Amino acid sequence: MAIKHFQIEGHIYYITTNVYKRLPIFIRPAYTTAIYDSLNYYRYKQAYKLLGYVIMPDHLHLLI
Fold first, then answer.
1. Three-class SS of residue 55?
2. Which helix (H) or strand (E) holds 39?
3. pLDDT 10s digit of each residue in the chain, 64 long?
């Protein structure tokens, strides 16, 4: 089953995701650095505005 995608110009999207079995992997700098690098890469590649983000030990939140 495909995931439906919505894109409405000018709207703010709240995205959240959890790590498998809620393992606290984001306490390691190597993993958080990978998240930061990916956010920056795709922010310029996809031309979206990253309004805010929070990286917790086992999940993250994005405002795009």
1. strand
2. helix 29-45
3. 677 777 788 889 999 999 999 999 999 999 999 999 999 998 889 878 899 999 999 999 999 9
> Would you give the DSSP letter of residue 21?
G
For 58, which DSSP code? Answer: S
Single pTM value for the model: 0.76
Residue 40 lies in a domain: yes
Query: Angle at Cα 49 formed by Cα 31 and Cα 35, nearest 5°?
Result: 5
Q: For residue 31, is it within any domain?
A: yes
Structural domain harbouring 26: 14-63
Handedness of CA 43, 38, 28, 30 (dihedral sign): negative
Split into its structural domains, the chain has a count of 1
